[in-house]
Amino acid sequence: MIGISKITGYFPQRYVKMKDLAVARCEDPQKYLIGLGQEKMAVVGGNEDGVSLGLNAVKRLIKDLDDREKSQIKMVIWATESSTDESKAASLNLIDTLQLPNNGRYFEIKEACYGGTAALTLAFAQVALHPETKIIVVTSDIARYGLKTKGEVTQGAGSIAMMVEDSSNIVLSPFGQSAYYAKNIADFYRPQGQNAAIVQGQLSNQSYLNFFYQVFQDFFKKQDLVPEEIKLINFHLPYTKIGLKGLEKVKDQVSLSTYEEWVKLFNQGKALNAEIGNIYTGSLYLNLISNMLQGNFSSGDLLGMYSYGSGAQGEFYVLKVQQLWKMPEIEDLFINRKAISVEEYENLYRETTSNLNQTFNSEGIRHGDFYLKFIKNGERFYEQA
Ligand code: HMG
Hints:
The chain is an alpha/beta fold. It has two domains: about 1-170 and about 325-385, Thiolase/Chalcone synthase (Peroxisomal Thiolase, Chain A, domain 1, 3-Layer(aba) Sandwich); about 180-320, Peroxisomal Thiolase, Chain A, domain 1. Helices cover about 30% and strands about 25% of the residues. It contains twelve helices and 17 strands. The chain has helices at about 20-25, 30-35, 50-60, 65-70, 95, 115-130, 200-220, 240-250, 255-270, 270-275, 285-295, 340-350; strands spanning about 1-10, 15, 40-45, 75-80, 105-110, 135-145, 155-165, 170-180, 190, 200, 230-235, 300-310, 315-320, 340, 360, 370-375, 380-385. It has a five-stranded mixed beta sheet with strand order 1-7-6-4-5, sandwiched between helices. Helix 8 (about 240-250) packs antiparallel against helix 9 (about 255-270). The longest helix is centred in the middle third of the chain and has 22 residues, at about 200-220. The structure holds 3-hydroxy-3-methylglutaryl-coenzyme A. 3-hydroxy-3-methylglutaryl-coenzyme A binds near residues 151, 236, 239 and 242.
């Protein structure tokens, strides 16, 4: 069977509490905590970038593989909108740092937050053509809008990695046909050379919700399935309140009991997204992990997946839970996370750099985790702390 045999992730160890950020920005903390549904925001230092976050997620993903299994990895698709290079794919860094095979195809893929879903869909199709191979999908991003902007509260950082293969050990498999919808709009974009996104916040909210309504309806028109058969919906969550608004949008399409059950499970399952913030390409898959860790689904359940990438692309598809034999194993990342002050966060924000030559220390990085050690003539070098 084709599907995801393992999913895991990695998140920076530093975070800012939303209530501290609200006070510093002269906002009512309830706006951030209730109005947007965010508790904390993961923060990177200058010694972390989209590549280092992804290296750490993949390290966790492949930790139990033997040499023969590693040699079956024939493709690594890296979905990101936080690329550190206009040309070279981030996934190539895995060859040296984690000894992935040279005999493989490594590349990067982009369409805002939709990139992770694009990569996963491609991986499913590729494994169908080559059932003897394993494919790694990496999503890795640092959400940046700028200090004191309206989008600031919806920042975050992290990486999710997934193993796709044809095996008897599949945890989640694609089910039925996806529904998708695209439109050329400027709700959110990041021109070359800018390190923060330009966003029309309310337009992006409207577009996200309208696309959801459209693809949700299209999905059920395409197959012999009714919404009531879906256990819960995982959402791309730039902030968690938007998932509740999504459910509200399709309330008239489902029975009241299903709507209420979806809301209940959503409120339980949003925990990690509220703790970490927006991680762009990986956000939907973080919500999936979060629901998994809450025990919100079990074998045989069908899970709705709503993916949205500004610009804009939406997709609704379904994953079937096969067996929960492999859990994400990320709990240790939450044991010694460090709360930092708004002032420290602002200093780290300014530190994050695109200089062509710079050296970093391993401050704030856990022992054994990868960090950006130095940049020489624009080339980036990573090392384990
Ligand atoms: P804003 O204008 O500061 O917030 O920006 P608001 O005025 O819309 O208020 C937010 C909510 O807080 C409202 O709730 C208020 O009522 C409530 P709603 O009415 O909408 O239900 N509120 C309060 N609640 C309790 N107590 C209070 C209080 N005060 C107000 N005292 C916005 C919010 C999200 C627009 C902004 O942060 C932003 O621009 N963020 C970035 C863009 C974004 O996240 N868009 C989401 C959809 S687009 C997407 O998901 C794609 C993306 O991930 C990028 C990609 O694809 O790569 C972003």
